[in-house]
Task: structure prediction
Amino acid sequence: MSIRMAASAPLIMRIMASSLSIADRAGEVIRDILSTGDLNVVDKGQKIYDPQTEADRKCQQMIIGSLSKQYKNLKIIGEEGAEDLSKIPPELIVDQIDTKFLEQYKCPESFKDISEDDLVVWVDPLDGTNEYVAGFIENVTVLIGIAFRDTSIAGIIHQPFFKCATTNKMGRTIWGLKELGTSGYVKKSPPENKLILTTTRSHSNDIVNATIEAIKADEVLKVGGCGFKVLQLLEGKAHCYVFASAGCKRWDTSACEAILEADGGILTDIFGKHYSYGPNIEHLNRTGVLATAKGIDHESLLERIPAATREYLMKKK
Result:
């Protein structure tokens, strides 16, 4: 497919195809900066340590700058704040579009007539910065979520430090679009007759711990990054992801929710409600996250959330 032919594809498919190419290049930047040995870390936190690296900054410029160049009226919200497009270095602009994606997949009828004004793109240029700094590089992902009229419908999760066992190629990109499906990973159901829960590695507190205890999981996996936790569900390594705190943001969950639900899973807050991803919505996910893999009873896990947890989170709303 030529670039000219690609331009005639439905908007949502073109944005997906562009994001696939951009996320792949962002993964290269993340690896390159780590290889220098100098992450150029600054602490943007106030009450708690909240590191930002050179990779966070460059990848945000790359993703927002590249998408903005291709889609002039697209609303894009990034973790690292607003970007002055005139100051983004030209070498960070990615013009490529994944034409193979457009050749292989057809747009769902529901999304064929979407316009740029209908969409919001949520960008986490480096999800799992704490882990990147600490050396838990497998946990690091790039997240690009696409919301249509408040609902997250599509997402990209790029894992820069995933190494393909057969080709030794570094990096892989997982995508999902509701009503179309998902790709980029080996789908697997979690083991039967046990409950494996994944949760935060570095942002725990008493409420988070008490909630995990109440769920009575057989095994608890503590890993970093929303993207990496959702990968645990997609690949059958865990049944659920629980975070009973107001820590993550819309740019953490947008891509994750869309991909997980395109696969048949569910991602909501602790009360069972989906977050809104509209252009003027608050960025903080105040009422936590409960995500379940395909085939797992989401409602039964909601019922295990302690009343004390619900009361605590209600006060945070």
Q: What stands out?
A: The chain has a mean pLDDT of 94.
